[in-house]
């Protein structure tokens, strides 16, 4: 194929005014945030009636937390706070003086925090800046005391509780983090005593303890807005005023108390051991535990209120010849005032006679269109046989065991009605596989007593019989992994690989050594300032293969807001890591003479958890297309997103990036956003972090001790769904070990699971600095495992691979295979002008 290399120019524009793309993408971000906001409690408090006045308190009202810190951050033009959103919506506020004063307090606190970070980084050495930054999270300052006169004319009092977290550090069971501060408790108590209508807004990346909040006698409303991106203030105002009827549903369980979570006391730093993390809860994660062990949650998985009511009627449950099951339901808006949307959730109870199983599992879902009062819609939801299967470690196979399967339909994990029974006559192997990542030490997993499981199974069967539900024969079919024809790009990549010298081959599996955060201008062209890295440009002059830039995510692309270009030399001043985080507040913004300023404002979309709370794959596809438009505009080929690790514990510092505690929901959301991105020319996603990246403390050295069954059913299943449904361009391995093996060096993960079992067609890359000297992975081990690209790359990686090739530790065939995969995907990126959507291949 005749490939024409894209002409690389300076990314962004010298015009600082907002663009049409910015405006369009902000509207998508606003809609996505509103669709994901979950109304947890509403006793006539919302929506506000026209003309009602409100008081608004809490630090997050003025400085709403849009997202988490670290690589998941986005440097947007501005963030619409809740305060600003309320004003723009015309909500009369009775405490504007308090809010304005808090703004001044906040700005001073941020300045003091910034100076403290820079001073500490200076003492430790600026090469340790990110470590200092990530482990010293900014906390909201105290505001002035609430005055009673601010409340006298208010019809409702809103109180915002905000939290932030990020990569490289987990959260803590401390006040100001998982627990309320004394000030927050005192202010809520005061509002409770003075107001008849208190509404609490949770602006937190993950769950916090709700016990003190739920005790308030005048708590009439409670909303989870997570971290809603740059349009969060407008999105919340849309909900509060009734412009949008809430339709979000929780993507993870909110426990009544932290101690209710299995293994909570031993998580991460809680037991003082961050070297090994024992996944003793096995398959009992989130609602699977709460439902199976009869634990009552504060708010269950899948829960969310609306301003209207819905009925859900199941029409038919039909096993298909394909081995799938079709469930058809009719949803009706039974209210008479508000239009709204409902999420239909389908769960299955599997037989307990063989393998131990959770009480119920999510196996399908769909969201309605906007239904007017009295309007109805019929939905057809297809359930794959594998969603009913369990993994047998004894047989190394996914099996749908014989017995009866209860089918439940409802709108949350604890609001379900049994609507059908499927009967399987014989154990059916859906897929036989090789064993991967065996345990290296004894792991005592949580077990639900057999008597409890059988008694609950007996109860649902009796319920089904009482409803007259007769078992329907179901014959599950073995899973057929889709095969793909070889693209022209692969043939070209194979031919070129054979022409390359060994040094060129080594260079192609390592990121561009000369293009770190501090130096953006190199031989391959002009790197996108603020981009996370770039593939090697060593073949540009000889073979016309340019480097491909990649940018962080997953709440949007992370680039510099602006950078300078010297008019004489063409050199770039981008401030390095100091300009990349927190909107560049740590950078020196003193203007230089003889320079042009280029602007590259990106959209801060809602974080992953809030996107998942929409339960709306079509909306995530639209979000993906919006991200792709920015990738194309700025010349980015790979988006290092979406993040899709499981919400194993609410203290994981990076949970805000991830979707859910449930692998089906996670996989469907990741597949949707991937389809959206990859429907556009030459751009792709990188699903991460593969796998078990469930804690941040000692993230490069922590060993996740997990059974193969739990690994496959919980922690790999979402990745599997995303790969099979959407074929992302790339997968990124995680920092941690699994059962003694660094994931970046795991052939079981990269080759056996991803490529041999799932038929993954793209490339696999490491997370940044996974290899020595900072990380624990070996460079040659990455290549041997099938991990194609070491990022960001260094001379030490080259030397390590050279030595391994020379002494025979690394086979030349493994290196060539990685190079061939790299070139195959590079040829399909927007590095070339005639690129087409990667998704059209699949």
Structural features:
842 residues; alpha/beta; 6-stranded mixed β-sheet; globular
Describe the structure.
The protein is of the alpha/beta class. The protein contains 23 helices and 32 strands. A six-stranded mixed sheet has the order 1-6-5-4-2-3, with helices on both faces. Strands 21-22-26-27-29-32 form a six-stranded mixed sheet. Strands 11-10-15-16-18 form a five-stranded mixed sheet. About 0% of the residues have low confidence.
Biggest sheet descriptor = 6 strands, mixed
N-C termini distance: 19 Å
Residue-averaged pLDDT: 95
C-alpha Rg, in Å? 26 Å
Please indicate the percent range of residues in DSSP E strands (runs of 2 or more): 15-25%
Q: Given the structure, what is the number of helices?
A: 23
The low-confidence runs, each spanning 5 or more residues with pLDDT under 50, are 516-525
Overall structural class, as computed from helix and strand content, comes to alpha/beta
How many runs of DSSP E, i.e. beta strands? 32
**Strand order, largest beta sheet:** 1-6-5-4-2-3
Helix content: 25-40%
The gross shape turns out to be globular
